[in-house]
Amino acid sequence: MRALFETIVQMEFIMTAIELSVPLVLAALAALITNKAGILNIGIEGSMLMGALMGAVVGYQTGSVMLGLLAAIAIGAFLGLLMSVFVNKFKINHILVGIAFNLLAAGLAIFIIYVRTGTKGDHPSVSIPTWTVPYLSDLPIVGPLLFGQNLMVYLTVVAAVVIAVVLSRTKLGMHIKAVGENVEAAESVGINAFKIQSYALLIGGVLAGLGGAFMSMAYMSTFNTGMIAGRGFIGIAAESMGAGIVGNTVLASAVFGFVNTFAVTAQVTLRIPFELLNTLPYLVTILALVIYAMRKRRKQVKQP
Amino acid sequence: METTPLLDMQAITKIYDNGVVANDNASFSLRKGEIHAIAGENGAGKTTLMKVLYGLEKVDEGRVMLHGNEVNITSPHKAIEHGIGMVHQHFMLVDSLSVAENVMLGAEVTKRGFIDKSHGIQKTEAIAKTYGLYINPLAKTQTLSVGLKQRLEIIKVLARDVSIVILDEPTAVLTPQETVELFNQLKRLRNEGHSIVIITHKLKEIKTICDRVTVMRHGKTIGTYDVATITEAEISKRMIGAEVRVERVERSIQGGKPILEITNLTRHHPGEPSLHDVNLSIRPGEIIGVAGVEGNGQRTLIDILTGYASSYEGRVLINGVDIRGRSIKAVRELAVSHIPEDRMIKGSNPFGTIGENLVSTTINKPAFNRAKGWLINGRKIRQYTQRLLKSYRIKADNTDVPVRVLSGGNIQKVVCARELDSQPSLLIADQPSRGIDVGSMEFIHRQIETLASNGSAVLLVSADLREIFRLADTIYVIYNGAFVGAFNNDGSVREDTLGEYMLGIKRQAFAKEVARRDAGNAAL
């Protein structure tokens, strides 16, 4: 028990927890903005995988972190727009499109890696640097916490704030909410639903691509076909727990990130089989959704 | 004297993809500053004609002249640019947004990239003041009453600086009091120089508020008349080609044990209207009408009686059998029929054929089966459904037509045929004639009457008072989940009296009234 506690309060643990929250927060934000526009984007998982792959491949090939990140963003955006075309123009159910995208991404990733390396699992990558503020990062505790994180951590915080502001204060956000809630009403006042859903899916795709890139370019500096490991889906679960509110969604994602980190670090300290520990984030997801559903029901009972 | 009309739709023809001719050489012209009704039965093409004008439907032939110039309106956006706005029958509102946000939706004013919220609030307040359409701009739309939602829709249209306002059946969802209020507002709009088009099939409204009326039938425009010089009967005649009988037929209620007995029925369930201590009994041959504004517990009552809702306090006996714990099917097996409020959701499977829908509740009957129920007897079913198609005058070539291509009235006839043909001992009819044409309505009403005359008990729930007056022996008014009034439908009670009870302005000392009613019944 003591060992457990000591594990959690260690600085290293907290730093890892923050890092592991990043892809979940980005996935959840992607789910949030597309959900607001009325599309449950199951394809986030696949977009993250493609983002991770393209980031690694382009980054490694060119030796440029920047180009790698841009490639991850581009593929995410492209997949988002493609999804919008399938959903709006070909009128295919968005869940089916999402599933198809995920299957395609999984297959394509292996194919591309095999073509490039001759193996089916890994591809070398580059590393997004940690951004250390001189002097400030030397402060105890708050130093590394606030001023010594990976660049992607800051980017994620900025993304969350931007999404929140876009949704609450801009025309685009207003139109996204209107289209998601009542397409007919939105269209009756001249809002182009296809355009708005495309924007939302594009933004969601960019976020998912970034989330993937974090895995292959920051958390690790190599790409592995199994590295997304359901993080896209956990992001969707976090969004649902956050009830579409940006702050709550980030918080829910962070909880999952914390559990994920615990599963990773406890392997060393607790001598529990790591296969069992690895199921923890998923179990917590289910548990959280159950608690969420129960709370929601109780709330409904309270207000007749 | 005849100046160029503000709007002139000439020889409009619109044929839908499925071959239905919705508008056939229809013409319509609107003067500045008038309230103009477009009257006709359901499926007469009124809404299509206005959708053409509002850019929601593409016209096949004909042209639209505005201020004497031909215009090509291809989208609602274009229509708004030309100063034409429409208030749809189903509200086009985003419930989670505030009133002001809905008003400005699609036309938001921004300041440095961000929405200028105060502008929306000011604009809403300005319109409210100018036209007497008072509303709280900060209220969440989902909290508004139906009447206020409609007011918001009108404000929304006005915020776009339109000069022509189209309203599609605006009073369908309003109480009598709200209707009066709406009419006053429309008059005020007219006096401010707006031109208003009202799509309606309510003759009384045409007489009350409109200056002119254009009558449509089968996609054609029959003619345009000054309301002052035409009677309701004449409009009605032109709408349906023949006069309709609307007075109530006297039936004698048979004595005997009640078929339906409800005692102290109460249900509180989150997210739906509650029901408080409802008592009711219906005897053979009796039609009880429950009048009320939608959302006052009617749905809850019906859900319990039909087995949809299982948790409740109190007792429901149908033919002496307690229905507690019975499934929907098990309730139906007590010879209960149910005409649901929404024919496209609960009432029918729109994608199934007429035949499939007609036997959907009776498919398990031995007569329709072969091989001990393992196979369906297609021939028998076909004979049966063909017979229903004919006797219920469902307008379709055969029973293999999918229900969704039929008009509302014909879909409702399919539902009624299925529910009434089994000669149920209890019929629960929820808004059986909502949104259907006068001919179909009359037909369905007659079927319900016949059923009652043959000794069935009927519970009729409706927001349409004409329907209640037409059919019910006794009228109960439901408000906030409780019965607040009971009236013998003997011609002594008037619509506006019921309206006051429906809105909760008045309430009877109820037990006394029931006692009086029961005493009255005993005397029968």
Walkthrough of the structure:
The complex is a heterodimer of chains A (304) and B (524). Chain A has 304 residues and is mainly α. Chain A has a domain at 14-126 and 140-228. Helix content of chain A is 77%, strand content 2%. Chain A has a two-stranded antiparallel ribbon. In chain A, helix 3 (44-62) crosses helix 10 (193-219). The mean pLDDT of chain A is 89. Chain B is of the alpha/beta class and 524 residues long. Chain B folds into two domains: 7-240, P-loop containing nucleotide triphosphate hydrolases (Rossmann fold, 3-Layer(aba) Sandwich), CATH 3.40.50; 260-335 and 423-523, P-loop containing nucleotide triphosphate hydrolases (Rossmann fold). Chain B is built from 18 helices and 24 strands. In chain B, the strands form six sheets. Chain B has a six-stranded mixed β-sheet, sandwiched between helices. In chain B, strands 18-21-22-15-23-24 form a six-stranded mixed β-sheet, sandwiched between helices. In chain B, strands 2-1-4-5 form a four-stranded antiparallel β-sheet, with helices on one face. In chain B, strand 4 and strand 5 form a beta hairpin. The radius of gyration of chain B is 25 Å and the shape is globular. The N and C termini of chain B lie far apart (62 Å). Mean pLDDT of chain B is 87; it is low at 519-524. Chain A binds chain B through residues 169-171, 174-175, 177-178, 181-182, 184-191, 300-304, and chain B through 75-77, 80, 86, 88, 90-97, 101, 105-108, 110, 113-115, 156, 160, 268, 270-271, 274.
Please supply descriptive tags for the structure shown above.
heterodimer; A: 304 residues; mainly alpha; B: 524 residues; alpha/beta; Rossmann fold; 2 domains; six-stranded mixed beta sheet; 34% helix; globular; disordered C terminus
Concise account of the structure shown:
Chain A has 14 helices and two strands, in the order αααααβαααααβαααα. With 304 residues, chain A is mainly alpha-helical.
